[in-house]
Amino acid sequence: MLGVDWHGLITGIRAAWRREISAYFATPLAYVFVSIFLLVLGIFTWDLSRFFDTGAADLGPFFYWHPWLFMLFMPALAMRLWAEEASQGTSELLLSLPVSLSGLVIGKLLAAWTVAAIALVLTFPWWITVNILGPADNPAIALTYFVSLIMAGGYLAIGAAVSALTRSAVLAFVIGVLVAFILTAAGWPLVSGAIASALGPAAGDAVAQFSFVTHFETAQRGVLELRGLFFFFGFIALCVALNTLFISHRRGGAQ
Amino acid sequence: MLELQNLKKVFEEHVAVAGLSFALEKGEVLGFLGQNGAGKSTTMRMIAGVLEPDAGDAIVAGHSITTERRAAQSKIGYLPEGAPLYRDMTPLTFLRFMADAHDLQRGDRKNAVDRVIADARIGDVTGQQIASLSKGYRRRVGLAAALIHDPPVLLLDEPTDGLDPIQKRAVRALVARMAPEKAILISTHTLDEVPAMCSRVIVVDKGRIVADETPDTLAKSKPGGLEEAFIDLADSREAQRC
User: Fold this and answer.
1) Residues on chain B touching A88 (C-beta within 8 angstroms)
2) What Å distances lie between residue B164 and B78, B87, B134, B140, B189, CA to CA?
3) Residue A157: count of CB within 10 angstroms of its CB
4) Interface check B82 vs A, CB under 8 A
5) Where do the domains of chain A lie?
6) Which chain A residues are within 8 Å of B148, Cβ to Cβ?
7) More confident residue, A77 or B195
8) Is-contact A246 A161, C-beta < 8 A?
9) What ipTM, to 2 d.p.?
């Protein structure tokens, strides 16, 4: 169908996913990432959002920080995916394998996404806590978790695509955070309001529609908007396509 | 088994490979010689599908590397220069990854991993992290990975670089064992190894073939033997000054 070599795609996804999962857990990387993420998210929710002072059994103060923390943490998780292949020379090995490049790109992204999913799953004590505090809207919480996971994939896709542009994981992180910041802050009322007052309300709304925050806020209200899902999945597909393009460019001789 | 058809590669202004054509049959072990920058590794990268040729083609076991890349790659075992490996993995997990990437089925995978571990003689280090292995062992792990799918064509870019004499002998013996069933292209700087390993030699200079002989014929072409013949053909001003 559409000339896609599904066999090569699946083989690439499976091989790259297993390799990257092994890399995340063979080193302290995944453990350190998950631990620091949980710690920082806990501090922000507990201290800055004054979780227990709200008097409500909802996870709003907890979910509020997700885009802002993902903006920093997801590029950190994805920064080595392709930059390290280039710096260690293993991209030559990868490019010689009889698998689809898109498969390798998707497999690597899925591996990072798996680590992000584990980090999110380990926030379950917050969910239990709100249920202890009072009657919680569990379907709405489950929906917000789901969209949060999809959004994490979007941030990871940025980090992975940027990582394919450079041999330096640190540079990939810095550029990844910058791109992620733009896509996060565009939906921040302070930014969208400033754009609206300078260029008109339509411009402010248009810019906000490209923000992860805008689409995540809808889910936080317990509403599953197809438009939001299309936005996140479309964005991930765009990043995967760019990532594949950047890697295939190495076949032309660029490193 | 392997046929290069006017293969070319240019990096900006620099012509790395200027239209190479030759054929390699099953049972042949071809020593690919040339000074640094002569175009050996670039040629191997193009055959392996790592680099796209600017012109020409490489036909691997009947498959074009430009139009049937994955089919051609599945017929190639490639040991890149320096044998880059994932340092965080163990040889065993790395070989399993390579078996996955070549889509070997579960039963075949275990047999293939056991076979290449025995062939490359890395059985005593399969559980160690690759980062902790000596250069010689890393090279042998790379060689084992290149053999995992039992390919009919082998591309070995300096396979004995960094190995001690015993390890070199082991690699030479492995190449000799595989030679009857495969077409093998070996890039090397160690001229002493060429008569021991290769049935044919191609010398490249500035991306062009300047000699295509048996090692014996090439060695007899100059009073100084293979080294003198190589220096003469490679037109190395630096070497001639020495």
Assistant:
1) 84, 86-87
2) 22, 21, 11, 12, 15
3) 27
4) yes
5) 6-250
6) none
7) A77
8) yes
9) 0.90
Contacts with A, B 150-179, CB within 8 Å: none
A80 alpha-carbon distance from chain centroid: 14
* Pairwise CA distance, residues A175 & A189, whole Å: 24
User: Is A254 a residue whose pLDDT tops 60?
Assistant: no
Beta-carbon separation of A12 and B93 below 8 A: no
Superfamily of domain B2-75+153-241: P-loop containing nucleotide triphosphate hydrolases (3.40.50.300)
Secondary structure (3-state) at B192: coil
A 10 A CB-CB count for A14 gives: 17
Nearest residue of chain A to residue B41 (CA atoms): A92
User: How much is the pTM?
Assistant: 0.89
Residue B89 and residue A26: Cβ atoms within 8 Å? yes
* 8 A C-beta contact, residue A167 and residue A86: yes
**Residue B161: in which H helix or E strand, if any?**
none
Q: How far apart are CA A163 and CA B100, in angstroms?
A: 24
Provide CB contacts within 8 A for B78, sequence distance 6+.
A93, A96, B44, B48, B50, B146, B154, B155, B157
For A110, A131, A171, B52, the CA distances from B42, given in Å and listed in that order, are 32, 63, 28, 10
> Of A47, A73, A74, nearest to A62 (Cα)?
A47
**B60: which 2 tokens?**
């691997």
* Domains of chain B by residue range: 2-75+153-241, 85-150
Contact residues on chain A for B52, CB-CB shorter than 8 A:
251-253
pLDDT digits (tens, 9 = 90+) for A137-176: 899 999 999 999 999 999 999 999 999 999 999 999 999 9
Put simply, the answer to whether B102 touches A26 (Cβ < 8 Å) is no
Q: Is the pLDDT of residue A193 over 90?
A: no
d(CA A90, CA A108): 14
Q: What is the per-residue pLDDT across B181-193, written as a single tens digit (0 to 9) for each?
A: 999 999 987 788 8
- Cβ of B51 and A253 within 8 Å? yes
Give yes or no for A27 touching B (CB within 8 A).
yes
Q: Does A15 lie at the interface with B, CB-CB under 8 angstroms? A: yes
